[in-house]
Design brief:
single chain, alpha+beta, eight-stranded mixed beta sheet, 8 strands
Amino acid sequence: MSATGSSTAVGTLSMRPLDPLQDAGLLHSWVTHPKAAYWMMQDAKLQDVERTYMAIAASEHHHAHLGFHDGRPAFLMERYDPRYIELVGLYEPEPGDVGMHFLVAPTDRPVHGFTRAVITAVMEELFADPGTRRVVVEPDVTNTAVHALNETVGFVPEREIEKPEKRALLSFCTREQFFASRGVSL
């Protein structure tokens, strides 16, 4: 998916690289919302969000994208290289592994199927890179809603790992598993 986006059952989803200064106010409202508790930035100040995303923008191993639903900001996607970020020393990375985080903006008018459409779009974006062979995630072990969502797009849990900030469920999704979850064989 690019800035042009793709149409889904819930509307058009698109992404662009995050601008840490321009987008910090919006992100701050998302990451400090009670529904974003697993993002672990509940007490962050605006400057903390700016600094966090400026560091990501400066990293060659971590990238953030702002996602849009029908032209309005609606989600955040982070892509990282697990050889250098997040999972160093916690598992043996394979060539083509890409780490991913995503956050759907809080809303008082939820759209049925929206979060699944977002994670599907995120996975399509990651697998659009021919170098991506497997997507790696490490959500909190207590986040059962995201575990179930991850499984709908092909993730298979491997094991629990201890990170400095949480106990996480290390899960993987190969290109074949993702496309099989969508009824497409490669």
